[in-house]
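Sample 1 of the test manifest.
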Amino acid sequence: MRVEQIIFYALAAMVLGSALLVVTIRNLVRSIFLFFVALISLSGLYIFASADFIAIAQIVIYVGGVLVLMLFAFLLSNKELLNNLSRPVNRLINISSLPGFLLASAFLFVLISAILNTEISWLGYVQQNHFQPGDNTVHNIGISIMTRYLLPFEAVSMFLMMALIGAAHLARKGQKI
Amino acid sequence: MNFYLTYILVATCLFAFTALFALMAVYAERKLSAFMQDRLGPMEVGSYGTLQAFADILKLLQKEFIIPAAADRVLFFTAPVLIYIAVYLGFAALPWAPGLIPSSLNLGVFYIFAIISVETVGILMAGWGSNNKYALLGSMRSVAQIISYEIPAGIAVISAVMISQSLNLQEVTLSQGILSTGAVNFLGLIDVKNIGGFLAWNIFQAPHLIIAYIIYFIASLAECNRAPFDIPEAESELVAGFHVEYSGMRFAFIFLAEYSMMFLVGMLGVILFLGGWNSPLPNVGSLELATWTTSSAWGVFWVMVKTMLVVATQIWIRWTLPRFRVDQLMSFCWKVLTPLAFLCMLISGVWRLTMM
């Protein structure tokens, strides 16, 4: 086995193992830190797909932003509330896990149908067009954003602006009476 | 196989370098603080106390690891290593000399910013794992501060990257000296492509980058949790912040991470704004100082000298200024540094369109 394959399988095992532990472990803080392991290994897998920009953006956004926000929310909340949350559920099948079960099975159906409908002959087409490891992907991303995907890009920036204004409004001190 | 051995060797050299640098910086910090407070500093171990840092590390090595009874052991053990590794990984994308860079990434600047943000997770891990009120408060202050100050730092860096037109740190450095492939204009007007020296540095190519560098420098102090931004470890209120429960080797790791971080942010600033490994001496007529002092060995020398000066300034500021209050810290970041950084970015855009 080549070194690349060994690294790939190690990363994949880390993603799957830590993701499984995130949902099964009882200790909530540890599950958040395991989520961190899953995110980092996932960014390693992105590098294997020649998506280096996505890999780094994954670390910036999820590890630097979302994960820290989750930890903050966790550390600032009331301990009694967390004890209620971490109370173990007795039965495997109950009514509160029904929405999650439906969502998971729908997603599994999508995945399986995608795998079954994949044409192996497409893989040759994919291989002809893939990036070289040293390619500068940022240029391509920048050009694509400024030409083909300009409208979605502007829509996203408007959305972010709205979120920022909303956050500033919420964080303001209340009017003195 | 040699291919992989080179990588391991480079990584080991960088690790050894950070460890040695931390030892020297501890000694320098003690001596400089002593000088500023009109004391002598360490004098007993070795001549003028030069071996004091080695004595310290020997002491830390043989100390017991004390684990608080109520601590979360796994998190408590991993946190210092994670904090150090986050900083250490940042060194992978920093160029040391022409052609001498551990990994010439196309996304070097972005990568370093991403990897530094992993440190905050390590700090929160340490704060929570210690199961100590002061550690938790210190880690939360630290993370709030690091996240806030990443914004002006990032925007100041973007304004430099807009002038250099590359995220690859080696290309950014190349564009600031006599080895440049593009045009190099002092203040945007005088062509200094063959003169080089300090005239070709980014802050002199586009003078508004001086303000951007000052913003970056202030924000980098906050990211290292150093005075005047040391409220996370505020000895008088929080004992020692997030590392209050650590002892022995694990404390040494946190210390190592702090000093490596000082070097990392200092070196990143040097590369982006102060010419990186380019010589500060210009070519004057037949006296071709810049050409003579540009090579691999000189490159390492210049980048070390510049970064050491920046680190010395960080130490100088630590022992000169008092600590900020939390509200002052936040309003300074959001009401002064961030708008100024945005202004710098705007000027960079206009500069790029009109002057270059």
